[in-house]
Design brief:
single chain; about 425 residues; alpha+beta; BirA Bifunctional Protein, domain 2; Rossmann fold; 2 domains; eight-stranded mixed sheet; five-stranded mixed sheet; 17 helices; about 40% helix; binds adenosine monophosphate
């Protein structure tokens, strides 16, 4: 039989990598609890139609799409928001608002594999549904800030914009939605010349080109500058005002924004309001991003329901932690190896292991049938703290030998006192 490799773009996360990933997942879950987001678990496979409705051509073309055996066209989720909008328009329709949901898991996109870009990757997703208040948008950035700090990142920066600025200008110039989407997709990839080629109106072009020049180091000045620059376009001007409000609230909430982008787009098509991303200076790909999407729940048959959200790329957060050399500070539990001196005492060793585990002690039972010396050597190699040696002589007195592997000391301990020995 041939040997197998993982499918291109798919990875095995082994010991250290898996631990780093679950550490970040734990921190995301902790953040969800702190901010009042309830966890929901949705399917990895969803109807293609749901996932493709508003994700945008870029993601749509990269979805893992197939027919199931019942001839349904389905796809692996490329993100969580569509599933949550489905919930908000169906099972959670009558829940009191605001609705705060948290999800974590794998998502799938047929991206070109490279550092920080995989075909199966992990996201933590936060959605806040039922309000258009900018304070909800500010919450997305503040909880992202919390997560970055909780995983130990020191140097990271937020980029803030508003999709309504460009869309406002284009709509007023009668650019149809499809062309708008194509323009935004180019802008997302910083292909400004390709984006501008799709615009016919000279006035529109000069406004957009001028916007690119507006960036200054003072983010409040940039936000104010955008507002006066787009004065002639009323929807764009309203959007610029909203952007200013979010910027003010986030700053008041104690999180500085490093850059306000006059011309900023994100891959997903459903955004209607503020959008943002978080970066570290060492990587030119975002660790997370999100924004407001006020029309999606309605599109899926729900009531008109404003909403905002964020998705964090957990693989990239792990990468950022490695780059910035932050070490997860998870407390390592004491490890106890239980070793019977001979095969006949296997059952006794099992019984004692169960007593310890019931008291919360981490026990690794000797299962290889090794001789005592070999078993202790192996315990040393695996950085085990204590060995519980189960022998006939001690058992007759209701006791076992406990060996401290670091100190190389051995004592006889009554089984009834064992859990105390490991300070539980
Ligand atoms: P999006 O759902 O496009 O807003 O992406 C949210 C986050 O997911 C991004 O900021 C990245 O951190 C992460 N992400 C997106 N695509 C990939 C990928 N192919 N591999 C790894 N992480 C990704």
């Amino acid at each position: 039989m041939a040997t197998f490799k993982t499918v291109r773009g798919m990875r095995d996360l082994l010991a250290g990598d898996a631990e780093a990933m679950t550490f970040v997942m734990d921190k995301a879950r902790e953040t969800a609890q702190l901010y009042g987001y309830s966890e929901v678990i949705t399917p990895v496979i969803e109807p293609y139609e749901l996932l493709s409705a508003k994700s945008g051509e870029e993601i749509r073309s990269r979805m893992f799409t197939f027919k199931d055996l019942g001839n349904r066209t389905v796809a692996l989720r490329p993100e969580f928001t569509s599933s949550i909008a489905r919930l908000a328009s169906t099972s959670l329709k009558n829940e009191p608002k605001p609705l705060r949901t948290f999800s974590v898991g794998s998502v799938y996109r047929y991206d070109e594999p490279q550092r920080g870009r995989y075909r199966e990757f992990y996201q933590a997703d936060f959605e806040l549904i039922g309000t258009s208040n900018p304070v909800a948008d500010a919450e997305m950035i503040l909880l992202t800030d919390r997560l970055m700090k909780a995983v130990g990142l020191r140097d990271y920066a937020f980029k803030l914009g508003h999709i309504g600025i460009i869309r406002g200008i284009l709509s007023q110039e009668n650019v149809d939605e499809k062309t708008q989407n194509a323009i935004l997709q180019h802008m997302d990839k910083k292909e400004f010349d390709d984006a501008f080629k799709l615009i016919k109106s000279e006035e529109c072009l000069s406004t957009l080109r001028g916007s690119l020049e507006l960036k200054s180091d003072d983010v409040f000045k940039t936000a104010e500058g955008i507002k006066s620059h787009v004065e002639g376009y009323c929807k764009a001007a309203d959007s610029a005002e909203e952007l200013k409000n979010v910027l003010k609230l986030v700053t008041e909430g104690g999180c500085p924004i490093q850059s306000v982008e006059p011309v900023f787009a994100r891959g997903l098509e459903y955004y209607t309001g503020m959008i943002f991303e978080v970066y570290i200076p060492e990587l030119d790909i975002a660790l997370g991003g999100g924004g407001r999407y006020d029309k999606l729940v309605e599109l899926f048959g729900g009531e008109p329901t404003p909403a905002t959200g964020v998705a964090h790329g957990l693989d990239r957060i792990v990468l950022a932690m490695q780059i910035q050399k932050t070490t997860p500070t998870r407390e390592r539990p004491k490890i106890v190896a239980v070793v019977p001196v001979n095969e006949a005492l296997k059952g006794e060793a099992l019984r004692i292991s169960q007593i310890l585990r019931a008291a919360g002690v981490r026990v690794e039972l000797e299962v290889m049938g090794r001789k005592m010396n070999k078993a202790l050597e192996d315990a040393d190699r695996r950085k085990v703290d204590f060995a519980v040696i189960v022998g006939e002589r001690e058992l007759k007195q209701g006791a076992v030998a406990v060996r401290d592997l670091a100190k190389r000391e051995q004592t006889i301990v009554k089984i009834a006192d064992l859990t105390k020995t490991f300070k539980i």
